[in-house]
Design a protein that fits this description.
single chain, about 190 residues, Alpha-Beta Plaits, three-stranded antiparallel β-sheet, elongated
């Protein structure tokens, strides 16, 4: 069933667009008065002044390393699967496998790319990552001179992401395994 919405015809004054023009001039006059007479600028001088990022701001996603300098990503591809604009592309290791740079990690990504032109900064990749390998940084100034520059590879993502503490799952699991070897628990 369709619903028909009746629109009332515009009056002669409304057809001249004078009321709309007057309301626009009213807003413009308020900004002009605030800027000129009260000394409050409406804009900021961007390179010299920086925007204060509010709490909860979701910036660009980057890969991070743990305190020992190892890549946290284990190529599970959950972030690639959950990414709405399909901005993340992970190439898992081939059949021969890539040697992990830490113990207890089965595989490491052969290639990891994030297309920052497609990324919508939703934060799903950070939420779904079981290894806490992706974090959203608080930057908002992503620039590049070409489209290829805006596709960040694994090395660039790790360099920009830096070192992040977080949970060191594998280290805790190793410590637990060592403790169990030293003090075996008898099962009843």
């Amino acid at each position: 069933m369709t619903k028909v919405v009746e629109r009332k015809p515009l009056s002669a004054l409304e057809r001249t667009y004078l009321p709309t023009l007057a309301s626009g001039l009213k807003v413009t006059w308020k900004h002009f008065k605030k800027t000129v007479f009260e000394g409050k600028p409406a804009t900021m001088e961007y390179p010299e002044e920086r925007w204060v990022v509010p709490e909860g701001y979701r910036g660009a996603p980057y890969l991070v390393k743990d305190q020992e300098g190892h890549t946290k990503c284990v190529s599970c591809q959950l972030c690639e699967f959950v990414c709405p604009p399909k901005a993340i592309k992970i190439t898992p290791p081939g059949p021969e496998g890539q040697v992990a740079d830490r113990t207890n990690a089965e595989k490491m990504p052969q290639e990891f790319e994030i297309n920052m032109l497609r990324c919508i900064f939703c934060g799903f990749c950070q939420e779904v990552c079981p290894e806490e390998a992706i974090f959203l940084q608080r930057d908002y100034s992503l620039t590049g001179e070409s489209r290829e520059e805006m596709i960040y590879n694994k090395e660039k993502l790790l360099k920009l992401g830096g070192v992040h503490g977080g949970i060191q799952k594998w280290k805790h699991k190793l410590e637990e395994a060592k403790e169990q070897e030293e003090f075996p628990v008898a099962k009843i």
